[in-house]
Specification:
This protein has about 400 residues and is of the alpha/beta class. The protein has 13 helices and twelve strands. This is Aminotransferase.
Length: about 400
């Protein structure tokens, strides 16, 4: 008898970040004083004007099916956003709206990848990238960045990874999980490589565009190199900057042929994103943006708190990220030791497991993101929780022997 489940499932694994968040919630429910640093979402509420737009949509009966990949009003707002903030000119036919950025990325892979097609993915990477490529039948080609280069790949690494089978280069800045952001000069050096290989397309994940710190200035590939415009899918969403993770709205703009293919995929899978969420997203993009700067300042303060706290821990080196709300400390100095509770710290997963069991701090181990030995901290939580978490991590590290 043939197996019931699809063979493709053997190629992928469940999301480790969701698993850590779920485990932390279970332990909290059981009475443990757990501090969860695994969730990748802002801890503050959706702005009032955006919530009001969602409520208004309900009251006005905007609860029916919409066009498969977005209402015209939202597509126009997205075009205006790209023009205003990125200097990129798109028309609505070049725009797609999905149920979160993840669906947009997945639709693009499903619409373009054939067996043997390769997707270059810099590591550390968001946990879902390789598995989405595998589910779509492609082959992830992981290019590891180093702590010494600020977790950013070099042009030489990109050049070496490109083959005749390369279909996509997947680019994420600022990065989940490291917070690393590519400067315009660094990105220009990568785009110069891509211009020499016209068969390679570019897929960006710009979800953390508005969460950048200090004098770092965000830029996106098609903005830096207009020659890449016709082969770039620029992906973004309202989840992070607008604290709308649960509303599930992501979007992208790119070549009409690709957008049409993605629309076909979506028409036979989920159909339209939530109608109410779409109207709220119109308000997010078209409405006041004045809350973004204070939220960014709040995250920057938390970043500095966590970086200082982790660098005070024996065996940990934590670089200062340019954006997002994550840090990705290196724990090379902790590997090979034994925890206060007697656990062997053989790798970063063992470190994270022992930290949760012995100090009630939940982090995501680095192997899940493709680069070890590290772990990811999301500092999208209160100063008090972050201060206490860093104190517990320091106590844990001081007890290693």
């Amino acid at each position: 008898m043939p197996p019931f489940l699809a063979d493709a499932l053997a190629r992928v694994k469940p999301s480790p970040t969701i698993a850590v968040t779920t485990k932390a919630a279970e332990l909290k429910a059981a009475g443990r004083d757990v501090i969860g640093l695994g969730a990748g979402e802002p801890d503050f509420d959706t702005p009032a004007n955006i919530k009001a737009a969602g409520i208004r949509a309900i009251e006005e009966g905007r609860t029916k099916y919409t066009p498969v990949d977005g209402i015209p009003e939202l597509k126009r707002a997205i075009c205006a956003k790209f023009e205003r903030e990125n200097g990129l000119s798109y028309e609505p036919a070049q725009v797609t709206v999905g149920t979160g950025g993840k669906q947009v990325l997945y639709n693009a892979f499903m619409a373009t990848l054939n067996p043997g097609d390769e997707v270059i993915i810099p590591a550390p990477y968001w946990v879902s990238y390789p598995d989405m490529v595998l589910l779509a039948g492609g082959e992830p080609v992981v290019v590891a960045a180093a702590l010494e280069t600020g977790f950013k790949i070099t042009p030489e690494q990109l050049e070496a990874a490109i083959t005749e089978r390369t279909k996509w280069f997947l680019f994420n800045s600022p990065s989940n999980p490291t917070g690393a952001g590519y400067s315009r000069e660094e990105l220009k050096a990568l785009t110069e490589v891509l211009m020499r290989h016209p068969h390679v397309h570019v897929m960006t994940d710009d979800m953390y565009e508005h969460l950048t710190f200090g004098d770092f200035t965000f830029c996106t590939p098609a903005e830096v190199e207009p020659g890449l415009y016709e082969r770039t899918l620029t992906v973004n969403g309202v989840s992070k900057a607008y604290a709308m993770t649960g509303w599930r709205i992501g979007y992208a703009a790119g070549p009409k042929e690709l957008i049409g293919a993605m629309r076909k995929i979506q028409s036979q899978s989920t159909s339209n994103p939530c109608s109410i969420s779409q109207w709220a997203a119109v308000e997010a993009l078209d409405g006041p943006q004045d809350f973004i700067a204070p939220n960014r300042a709040l995250f920057e303060r938390r970043r500095d708190l966590v970086v200082a706290g982790l660098n005070a821990c024996p065996g940990i080196t934590c670089p200062v990220p340019e954006g997002a709300f994550y840090v990705y400390p290196d724990i090379s100095g902790c590997i090979g030791k034994t925890s206060p509770g007697g656990a062997a710290i053989t790798d970063d997963e063992a470190f994270a497991t022992a930290l949760l069991e012995e100090e009630n701090v939940a982090v995501v181990f680095g192997a899940a993101f493709g680069l070890s030995p590290n772990f990811r901290v999301s500092y999208a939580t209160s100063d008090a929780a972050l201060t206490e978490a860093c104190a517990r991590i320091k106590r844990f590290c001081e007890g290693l022997s």
